[in-house]
Amino acid sequence: MSTIAFTLMFAVWLMFGILGIPIQKELGLSDQQLSWISALAVLNGSMWRLPAGILADRLGGRTITLFLLFATAIPAYLVSFANNYAMLLVLAFLVGFAGNLFSVGTAWDSAWYSKDRQGLALGVFGAGNVGASVTKFIGPPLIAATAGSTYILGIQGGWRLIPVIYAVLLVIVGILTWIIVPKPDRAAGASKPLSEMLAPLKDVRVWRFSLYYVAVFGAYVALSAWLPKYYVDNFGVSLTVAGLLTATFIFPASLLRPVGGWLSDRFGARKVMYFTFALMLLSSGILMMPNGFITVVHPDGGQSQHLHYQISLLWFVVLVFILGCAMGFGKAAVFKHIPEYFPDNVGSVGGLVGMLGGLGGFVLPPLFAATKTWSGFPSSTFFCIFILVAICAVWMHVTIVRMLHDKSPELAGTIDRPLEEARS
Predict the structure, then answer these.
(1) DSSP string of 325-345?
(2) Residue 323's closest CA among 357, 289, 285?
(3) Which tens digit of pLDDT belongs to each residue from 415-424?
(4) CA angle, corner 60, sides to 211 and 123, nearest 5?
(5) Could you give the number of structural domains in the chain?
(6) Distance, CA of 343 to CA of 118 (rounded, Å)
(7) Which residue range forms the structural domain that includes residue 411?
(8) What is the reported pTM?
(9) If 13 and its partner were Cys, which of 99, 152, 179, 288 is the partner (CB 3.0–4.6 Å)?
(10) What is the pLDDT of residues 65-110, one digit of tens each?
């Protein structure tokens, strides 16, 4: 039930990735204005993850999940009546409250599973990220089929019908959760003082894990909202096709999360993180290359063109798919670290990591728009991701090397000596 609720809430949280395109046309918004609609939803779905995780540890995940489901249904319904940009910004911010369910579910599920199964359990729960693709599938055909229609209570068709459907589903899932989930809940931090729950946040490892999560989750959230428009603007496809192509990124980035959790249980989260960052650097490094060519001006005034490059739609989709696969593995690996290093504070640590990761999803869409405006290259989106992942990979590797040196400093000299001398 926590996974079902999270899947629905994730769909609601990121629904503006598809709804934003018809909204932009109706209200005459610029790309920058449009990016702020999704960004504000992501902001509010991130900023409360720390307190939400702590509350789940203290009160139990069932109570907090029910509250979030019913509370989010109200602004979701009201989105259908938004008729200006300011009203839409406010409601998008309130709808974004849905994103905070992640840290609640992380603490909730960790309390119900043993250490040797937590990686898989959290991976299955985290696969609810696939909810980001729900609007990509149902949105475009529903918008096209119901445009111009009016239903009961003055509800209009087109893009305005989608948030109403989501509001009804939120209430239904809330009722089912209340009926099905055991009422005697597990609250791992019920007896702990707040200061003890927040103490691990002083550990630099928590902030390092948070940066990793910005790369594998924040970038995932940002691309889930950004890719439909990217496909429409740069490859000239319809909104329906753009939604389907975006799903080829969302599905692996979500459904491979349980696999990433299982691999982390079996081989260790650190190895999975190395694989994740390598795959992300490779795919984003190719995707960031701008279409075009270099013009060389010769001394006699003549010009010649060199290094022609243009990526086709097929190869773009394949590379984005690979990027999504890497993110799916990485999201599970990051959260495998948390119950291992901080078994008694999963709610607070997971809340902070989830909060900062989600805030990455808030910062990146406006950054994508700004770098595109500054450089003129749409592919600058992936340059931002490449730089972010490179920083994470370097920090992780340097940290691991230092840890190994601290554990076995005597090996450093052995490794540095010539092979023959070392053998003797």
Answers:
(1) HHHHHHHHHHHHHHHHH-TT-
(2) 285
(3) 555 545 545 4
(4) 45
(5) 1
(6) 11
(7) 2-423
(8) 0.72
(9) 99
(10) 999 999 999 999 999 888 889 999 999 999 988 988 888 888 888 7
